[in-house]
Amino acid sequence: MGFFSYNCKGCGHSLLSGYATNAINRWMTDGVAIQRDGALFYGGYDGYGRLDGEEFADDSTVWHDACWNLSGRPLYDGASECSDDQGYFFDAGAHDEDEPTTVEEMHAIKLRLTVAHELRRRSYTSKTQGDPK
Ligand SMILES: [Zn+2]
Q1: 127 C-alpha to center of ligand 1: Å?
Q2: 3 in a domain, yes or no?
Q3: What pLDDT tens digit does each residue of the chain (133 aa) get?
Q4: Residue 31 Cα, ligand 1 centroid: separation in angstroms?
Q5: Judging by DSSP bridges, how do beta strands 40-44 and 30-34 pair with one another?
């Protein structure tokens, strides 16, 4: 059975399997899932769609606990996107962000992630198609 995960609605990073975290990003395994029916799930993510052992629906809104609290604990807001790295298979350093303590820090984390993705996309494009200039 393969790992899978979801991207946090707040910072955009994956909800990480507890087996894949390090000292910096350990907070990214503590999640909140809000089902369409309003049911709430909390706890440590196991990499298989469960928080503290409780399975939540795959169209849930998923957050890191830290990001959800900073954002004012919002309700269901549609399915979170699936994580490309499955919350487990990622490059060293890809999720090395300290736990945000303000909404501004959470937004800064998301911005750095967006920039990192864009740089990776451009680097891939220039390797496969040549520099457009
Ligand atoms: Zn987050």
Answers
A1: 31
A2: no
A3: 589 999 999 999 999 999 999 999 999 999 999 999 999 999 999 999 999 999 999 999 999 999 999 999 999 999 999 999 999 999 889 999 999 999 999 999 999 999 998 998 898 777 766 655 5
A4: 9
A5: antiparallel
Range of the domain at 102: 26-129
Tell me, in angstroms, the distance from the centre of ligand 1 to residue 71's CA.
10
Domain assignment present for 85: yes
Give how many domains the chain has, as a whole number: 1
Between the CA of 129 and the centroid of ligand 1 the distance, in Å, is: 34
Q: The whole model's pTM is what?
A: 0.90
Residue 16 lies in a domain: no
Is residue 47 domain-resident? yes
